[in-house]
Design brief:
Strand content: 15-25%
Radius of gyration: 20 Å
CATH architecture of the largest domain: Alpha-Beta Complex
CATH superfamily of the largest domain: Medium-chain alcohol dehydrogenases, catalytic domain
Number of domains: 2
Distance between the termini: 13 Å
Mean pLDDT: 97
Helix content: 25-40%
Bound molecules: beta-D-glucopyranose
Shape: globular
Largest sheet: 7 strands, mixed
Low-confidence stretches: none
Order of helices and strands: EEEHEEEEHEEEEHEHEHEHEHEHEHEHE
Structural class: alpha/beta
Number of helices: 10
Length: about 350
Protein backbone atom coordinates (compact mmCIF):
# COMPACT_ATOMS: atom_id res chain seq x y z
CA UNK A 1 0.00 0.00 0.00
CA UNK A 2 0.99 3.65 -0.38
CA UNK A 3 2.03 5.50 2.77
CA UNK A 4 3.70 8.76 3.75
CA UNK A 5 6.80 8.07 5.82
CA UNK A 6 9.72 9.80 7.50
CA UNK A 7 13.13 8.61 8.63
CA UNK A 8 12.95 9.83 12.28
CA UNK A 9 15.94 11.91 13.34
CA UNK A 10 16.61 13.08 9.76
CA UNK A 11 15.49 16.56 8.65
CA UNK A 12 12.91 16.79 5.79
CA UNK A 13 12.87 13.07 5.03
CA UNK A 14 9.10 12.94 4.34
CA UNK A 15 8.01 11.13 1.18
CA UNK A 16 5.41 8.71 -0.19
CA UNK A 17 6.46 5.08 -0.74
CA UNK A 18 5.13 1.53 -0.92
CA UNK A 19 4.93 -0.13 2.48
CA UNK A 20 3.81 -3.70 3.28
CA UNK A 21 0.02 -4.19 3.52
CA UNK A 22 -1.04 -4.65 7.16
CA UNK A 23 -2.36 -8.15 7.97
CA UNK A 24 -5.66 -8.34 9.86
CA UNK A 25 -5.94 -10.86 12.74
CA UNK A 26 -9.31 -12.49 13.64
CA UNK A 27 -9.73 -10.11 16.63
CA UNK A 28 -9.05 -6.97 14.57
CA UNK A 29 -10.76 -4.75 12.02
CA UNK A 30 -9.24 -3.33 8.82
CA UNK A 31 -9.79 0.38 8.29
CA UNK A 32 -9.53 2.36 5.06
CA UNK A 33 -8.17 5.83 5.75
CA UNK A 34 -10.22 8.85 4.67
CA UNK A 35 -8.14 11.76 5.97
CA UNK A 36 -5.52 12.77 8.52
CA UNK A 37 -5.11 16.07 10.36
CA UNK A 38 -1.71 17.77 10.34
CA UNK A 39 -0.24 19.30 13.48
CA UNK A 40 2.94 20.77 14.95
CA UNK A 41 4.03 17.32 16.17
CA UNK A 42 4.09 16.04 12.55
CA UNK A 43 6.20 19.06 11.56
CA UNK A 44 8.62 18.46 14.48
CA UNK A 45 9.00 14.80 13.50
CA UNK A 46 9.79 15.80 9.91
CA UNK A 47 12.32 18.32 11.29
CA UNK A 48 14.11 15.33 12.85
CA UNK A 49 13.49 16.67 16.39
CA UNK A 50 11.04 14.06 17.68
CA UNK A 51 9.59 10.61 16.95
CA UNK A 52 11.00 7.08 16.56
CA UNK A 53 10.37 4.27 14.04
CA UNK A 54 8.97 0.89 15.13
CA UNK A 55 11.74 -1.38 16.48
CA UNK A 56 13.76 -2.75 13.58
CA UNK A 57 12.24 -0.37 10.96
CA UNK A 58 13.99 2.41 9.11
CA UNK A 59 10.78 4.33 8.39
CA UNK A 60 7.85 5.59 10.45
CA UNK A 61 4.44 5.98 8.79
CA UNK A 62 3.51 9.47 10.00
CA UNK A 63 0.07 10.76 11.09
CA UNK A 64 -1.91 10.52 14.34
CA UNK A 65 -5.05 12.67 13.83
CA UNK A 66 -7.20 10.25 11.87
CA UNK A 67 -10.57 9.41 10.32
CA UNK A 68 -11.30 6.17 8.47
CA UNK A 69 -14.03 3.74 7.52
CA UNK A 70 -14.17 0.06 8.48
CA UNK A 71 -13.57 -2.12 5.43
CA UNK A 72 -13.29 -5.61 6.92
CA UNK A 73 -14.09 -7.20 10.30
CA UNK A 74 -12.22 -10.18 11.84
CA UNK A 75 -14.21 -13.34 12.67
CA UNK A 76 -13.87 -12.87 16.43
CA UNK A 77 -14.98 -9.21 16.43
CA UNK A 78 -18.49 -8.30 17.58
CA UNK A 79 -20.30 -4.96 17.26
CA UNK A 80 -18.47 -3.56 14.21
CA UNK A 81 -19.45 -3.69 10.54
CA UNK A 82 -18.06 -2.55 7.19
CA UNK A 83 -18.98 1.10 6.62
CA UNK A 84 -18.65 2.21 10.27
CA UNK A 85 -16.80 5.52 10.57
CA UNK A 86 -13.91 5.30 12.97
CA UNK A 87 -11.27 7.35 14.80
CA UNK A 88 -8.45 5.48 16.50
CA UNK A 89 -6.73 6.46 19.76
CA UNK A 90 -2.98 7.17 19.47
CA UNK A 91 -1.19 5.66 22.48
CA UNK A 92 -0.72 1.97 23.24
CA UNK A 93 0.21 0.60 26.70
CA UNK A 94 3.77 -0.18 27.80
CA UNK A 95 2.57 -3.34 29.57
CA UNK A 96 4.69 -2.72 32.66
CA UNK A 97 3.56 0.39 34.59
CA UNK A 98 0.51 0.41 36.92
CA UNK A 99 -1.20 3.15 34.89
CA UNK A 100 -1.02 1.24 31.57
CA UNK A 101 -2.01 -1.98 33.32
CA UNK A 102 -5.23 -0.29 34.42
CA UNK A 103 -6.01 1.22 31.00
CA UNK A 104 -4.56 4.70 31.65
CA UNK A 105 -2.05 4.60 28.77
CA UNK A 106 -2.18 8.39 28.58
CA UNK A 107 -0.66 8.55 32.10
CA UNK A 108 2.11 5.98 31.36
CA UNK A 109 4.89 6.33 33.96
CA UNK A 110 7.53 4.06 32.37
CA UNK A 111 7.92 6.12 29.18
CA UNK A 112 7.86 2.83 27.23
CA UNK A 113 4.46 3.48 25.62
CA UNK A 114 4.12 3.57 21.85
CA UNK A 115 2.15 6.16 19.86
CA UNK A 116 0.81 5.65 16.35
CA UNK A 117 2.56 7.97 13.91
CA UNK A 118 4.86 9.33 16.64
CA UNK A 119 6.68 6.80 18.85
CA UNK A 120 7.72 3.31 17.68
CA UNK A 121 4.37 2.51 15.99
CA UNK A 122 3.15 3.23 12.46
CA UNK A 123 0.55 5.97 12.02
CA UNK A 124 -2.33 6.77 9.73
CA UNK A 125 -0.90 8.41 6.59
CA UNK A 126 -1.51 5.18 4.74
CA UNK A 127 -4.25 3.59 2.66
CA UNK A 128 -5.10 1.07 5.40
CA UNK A 129 -4.41 0.09 8.99
CA UNK A 130 -5.55 -2.79 11.19
CA UNK A 131 -6.44 -2.43 14.87
CA UNK A 132 -8.14 -4.07 17.85
CA UNK A 133 -11.59 -2.56 18.42
CA UNK A 134 -10.72 -1.61 22.03
CA UNK A 135 -8.64 1.27 20.58
CA UNK A 136 -11.31 2.48 18.16
CA UNK A 137 -14.12 5.02 18.49
CA UNK A 138 -17.31 4.88 16.42
CA UNK A 139 -18.26 8.20 14.85
CA UNK A 140 -21.94 9.18 14.54
CA UNK A 141 -22.79 10.36 11.00
CA UNK A 142 -23.91 13.89 12.01
CA UNK A 143 -20.35 14.79 13.09
CA UNK A 144 -18.45 13.07 10.25
CA UNK A 145 -17.50 16.34 8.50
CA UNK A 146 -15.24 17.45 11.33
CA UNK A 147 -14.60 14.07 13.07
CA UNK A 148 -10.93 14.21 12.05
CA UNK A 149 -10.67 16.77 14.88
CA UNK A 150 -11.51 14.11 17.49
CA UNK A 151 -7.89 13.33 18.42
CA UNK A 152 -6.99 16.96 19.27
CA UNK A 153 -10.45 17.26 20.89
CA UNK A 154 -9.60 14.31 23.15
CA UNK A 155 -6.45 16.14 24.32
CA UNK A 156 -8.62 19.17 25.22
CA UNK A 157 -11.22 16.98 26.97
CA UNK A 158 -8.51 15.36 29.11
CA UNK A 159 -7.04 18.74 30.12
CA UNK A 160 -10.41 20.16 31.16
CA UNK A 161 -11.52 16.90 32.82
CA UNK A 162 -8.31 16.79 34.88
CA UNK A 163 -8.68 20.46 35.88
CA UNK A 164 -12.08 19.62 37.39
CA UNK A 165 -10.71 16.43 39.01
CA UNK A 166 -7.82 18.36 40.60
CA UNK A 167 -10.22 20.97 41.94
CA UNK A 168 -12.20 18.41 43.90
CA UNK A 169 -9.88 19.65 46.69
CA UNK A 170 -12.26 22.61 47.16
CA UNK A 171 -15.65 24.03 46.19
CA UNK A 172 -14.90 25.09 42.63
CA UNK A 173 -17.44 26.67 40.35
CA UNK A 174 -15.37 28.23 37.55
CA UNK A 175 -17.05 31.13 35.76
CA UNK A 176 -14.30 32.61 33.59
CA UNK A 177 -12.07 30.54 31.27
CA UNK A 178 -9.19 31.92 29.25
CA UNK A 179 -7.68 30.12 26.26
CA UNK A 180 -4.19 31.09 25.15
CA UNK A 181 -3.76 30.47 21.41
CA UNK A 182 -6.35 30.47 18.62
CA UNK A 183 -5.12 27.33 16.84
CA UNK A 184 -7.21 24.14 16.56
CA UNK A 185 -6.55 23.07 20.18
CA UNK A 186 -7.32 26.57 21.51
CA UNK A 187 -10.57 26.88 19.55
CA UNK A 188 -11.68 23.36 20.52
CA UNK A 189 -10.97 24.27 24.17
CA UNK A 190 -13.04 27.44 23.77
CA UNK A 191 -15.91 25.35 22.35
CA UNK A 192 -15.80 22.93 25.31
CA UNK A 193 -15.63 25.75 27.88
CA UNK A 194 -18.61 27.47 26.22
CA UNK A 195 -20.52 24.16 26.20
CA UNK A 196 -19.82 24.00 29.99
CA UNK A 197 -21.31 27.51 30.32
CA UNK A 198 -18.14 29.47 31.14
CA UNK A 199 -17.55 33.03 30.02
CA UNK A 200 -14.63 32.41 27.64
CA UNK A 201 -11.88 34.63 26.27
CA UNK A 202 -9.59 33.45 23.48
CA UNK A 203 -6.27 35.26 23.34
CA UNK A 204 -4.25 35.23 20.12
CA UNK A 205 -1.76 37.22 18.07
CA UNK A 206 -4.03 37.46 15.02
CA UNK A 207 -6.07 40.60 14.31
CA UNK A 208 -9.65 40.96 15.55
CA UNK A 209 -11.08 40.30 12.03
CA UNK A 210 -9.19 36.98 11.63
CA UNK A 211 -11.13 33.72 11.15
CA UNK A 212 -9.98 32.65 14.64
CA UNK A 213 -11.76 35.69 16.11
CA UNK A 214 -14.88 35.05 14.00
CA UNK A 215 -15.07 31.42 15.16
CA UNK A 216 -14.59 32.49 18.79
CA UNK A 217 -17.48 34.94 18.45
CA UNK A 218 -19.69 32.32 16.78
CA UNK A 219 -19.13 30.15 19.89
CA UNK A 220 -20.18 33.05 22.12
CA UNK A 221 -16.58 33.58 23.30
CA UNK A 222 -14.67 36.85 23.22
CA UNK A 223 -11.42 37.22 21.29
CA UNK A 224 -8.55 39.51 22.24
CA UNK A 225 -5.56 40.26 20.03
CA UNK A 226 -2.46 40.58 22.22
CA UNK A 227 0.05 41.27 19.44
CA UNK A 228 1.03 44.53 21.19
CA UNK A 229 0.24 43.63 24.80
CA UNK A 230 2.05 41.87 27.64
CA UNK A 231 -0.04 38.88 28.80
CA UNK A 232 0.39 39.63 32.56
CA UNK A 233 -1.34 43.02 31.95
CA UNK A 234 -4.42 41.48 30.30
CA UNK A 235 -6.43 40.51 33.46
CA UNK A 236 -6.41 44.17 34.60
CA UNK A 237 -8.83 44.73 31.67
CA UNK A 238 -10.65 41.39 31.56
CA UNK A 239 -10.63 40.07 35.13
CA UNK A 240 -8.62 37.13 36.49
CA UNK A 241 -9.58 33.70 35.09
CA UNK A 242 -10.52 30.60 37.10
CA UNK A 243 -9.20 28.28 34.40
CA UNK A 244 -6.54 28.91 31.76
CA UNK A 245 -5.83 26.51 28.89
CA UNK A 246 -2.41 27.15 27.36
CA UNK A 247 -2.16 26.05 23.71
CA UNK A 248 0.22 28.49 22.01
CA UNK A 249 3.27 26.24 21.62
CA UNK A 250 5.42 28.91 23.33
CA UNK A 251 7.14 28.22 26.66
CA UNK A 252 7.49 31.98 27.29
CA UNK A 253 3.69 32.25 27.30
CA UNK A 254 3.52 29.34 29.79
CA UNK A 255 5.44 31.34 32.40
CA UNK A 256 3.55 34.59 31.69
CA UNK A 257 0.34 32.59 32.18
CA UNK A 258 1.37 31.77 35.76
CA UNK A 259 0.91 35.50 36.53
CA UNK A 260 -2.68 35.78 35.35
CA UNK A 261 -4.59 33.21 37.42
CA UNK A 262 -7.33 34.22 39.84
CA UNK A 263 -7.72 32.83 43.39
CA UNK A 264 -7.87 28.98 43.36
CA UNK A 265 -7.17 29.23 39.61
CA UNK A 266 -5.92 26.37 37.45
CA UNK A 267 -3.50 26.56 34.54
CA UNK A 268 -3.53 23.57 32.20
CA UNK A 269 -0.50 23.27 29.91
CA UNK A 270 -1.06 21.49 26.58
CA UNK A 271 1.87 22.70 24.41
CA UNK A 272 4.69 20.23 23.71
CA UNK A 273 7.56 22.69 23.17
CA UNK A 274 10.82 21.58 21.55
CA UNK A 275 14.01 23.67 21.73
CA UNK A 276 16.47 25.03 24.31
CA UNK A 277 15.16 28.57 24.99
CA UNK A 278 16.45 30.30 28.16
CA UNK A 279 14.58 33.16 29.78
CA UNK A 280 14.52 35.33 32.93
CA UNK A 281 11.28 35.17 34.92
CA UNK A 282 9.97 37.03 38.03
CA UNK A 283 10.18 33.86 40.11
CA UNK A 284 9.41 35.40 43.54
CA UNK A 285 6.27 37.02 42.17
CA UNK A 286 5.16 33.85 40.37
CA UNK A 287 5.77 31.68 43.43
CA UNK A 288 4.03 34.13 45.77
CA UNK A 289 0.94 34.29 43.55
CA UNK A 290 0.79 30.48 43.25
CA UNK A 291 1.12 29.95 47.01
CA UNK A 292 -1.14 32.77 48.25
CA UNK A 293 -3.72 31.98 45.55
CA UNK A 294 -3.85 28.20 46.16
CA UNK A 295 -3.26 27.88 42.42
CA UNK A 296 -2.57 24.77 40.32
CA UNK A 297 -0.31 24.47 37.27
CA UNK A 298 -0.33 21.11 35.54
CA UNK A 299 0.76 19.51 32.28
CA UNK A 300 -1.45 17.19 30.27
CA UNK A 301 -0.68 15.02 27.23
CA UNK A 302 -2.57 12.51 25.11
CA UNK A 303 -5.96 11.15 26.24
CA UNK A 304 -7.66 7.90 27.18
CA UNK A 305 -10.76 6.31 25.60
CA UNK A 306 -13.03 8.10 28.12
CA UNK A 307 -11.85 11.46 26.72
CA UNK A 308 -12.46 10.35 23.12
CA UNK A 309 -16.02 9.41 24.17
CA UNK A 310 -16.45 12.80 25.88
CA UNK A 311 -15.20 14.43 22.66
CA UNK A 312 -17.79 12.65 20.51
CA UNK A 313 -20.55 13.69 22.93
CA UNK A 314 -19.39 17.31 23.00
CA UNK A 315 -19.09 17.38 19.17
CA UNK A 316 -22.80 16.57 18.98
CA UNK A 317 -23.70 19.18 21.63
CA UNK A 318 -21.49 21.91 20.13
CA UNK A 319 -22.76 21.30 16.60
CA UNK A 320 -26.36 21.59 17.84
CA UNK A 321 -25.67 24.81 19.77
CA UNK A 322 -23.45 26.48 17.18
CA UNK A 323 -24.15 24.70 13.87
CA UNK A 324 -21.32 24.59 11.34
CA UNK A 325 -18.73 26.22 13.61
CA UNK A 326 -16.41 23.23 14.04
CA UNK A 327 -16.28 22.59 10.28
CA UNK A 328 -14.85 26.11 9.88
CA UNK A 329 -11.69 24.96 11.66
CA UNK A 330 -10.87 22.75 8.65
CA UNK A 331 -9.40 25.43 6.42
CA UNK A 332 -7.12 23.51 4.04
CA UNK A 333 -7.91 20.16 2.42
CA UNK A 334 -4.78 18.92 0.66
CA UNK A 335 -4.65 15.85 -1.64
CA UNK A 336 -2.22 13.52 0.14
CA UNK A 337 0.09 13.35 -2.91
CA UNK A 338 0.72 17.08 -2.29
CA UNK A 339 1.73 16.59 1.38
CA UNK A 340 5.09 18.34 0.89
CA UNK A 341 3.36 21.68 0.26
CA UNK A 342 2.25 21.81 3.94
CA UNK A 343 5.56 20.61 5.33
CA UNK A 344 7.43 23.25 3.26
CA UNK A 345 5.07 26.16 4.04
CA UNK A 346 2.37 25.80 6.70
CA UNK A 347 0.48 28.97 5.76
CA UNK A 348 -2.07 30.87 7.86
CA UNK A 349 -4.98 28.39 7.94
CA UNK A 350 -6.29 26.80 11.14
CA UNK A 351 -6.35 23.01 10.50
CA UNK A 352 -5.00 21.39 7.36
CA UNK A 353 -5.90 17.82 6.42
CA UNK A 354 -4.47 15.35 3.94
CA UNK A 355 -7.29 13.77 1.95
CA UNK A 356 -6.44 10.10 1.43
CA UNK A 357 -9.60 8.69 -0.13
C1 LIG B 1 -0.58 14.17 20.18
C2 LIG B 1 -0.69 13.30 21.42
C3 LIG B 1 0.69 12.77 21.80
C4 LIG B 1 1.65 13.93 21.94
C5 LIG B 1 3.05 13.52 22.38
C6 LIG B 1 0.48 15.24 20.35
O1 LIG B 1 0.64 15.95 19.14
O2 LIG B 1 -1.82 14.80 19.92
O3 LIG B 1 -1.59 12.23 21.19
O4 LIG B 1 0.59 12.07 23.02
O5 LIG B 1 1.73 14.64 20.71
O6 LIG B 1 3.68 12.63 21.51
Amino acid sequence: MKAIVVRPGERDSIHMRDMPDPKMKPDQVAVKMLRVGLCGTDAEINHGLYGKPPDGDEFLILGHENLGVVEDVGKKVKGWKAGDLVVSTVRRPCGVCPQCKSGENDMCSSGQYTERGIMRRHGFMAQYYVESPQFLNKIPKPVRDFAVLLEPMSVVEKGIDHAFLLQRRTTWKPKFGMVLGGGPVGLLAAAVLRARGLRTLVIGREEANDLRAQISKQLGAQYLCVANKALPDVPKETGYPDLVIEATGSAKVVFDAMEILGPNGVLCLLSVTGGQTQNQEPIDLINQRLVLGNQVVFGSVNANPRHFAMGVKDFVTIDKKWPGTLSRLLTNRIPWQDHKSWFNERGSGIKSTLEIS
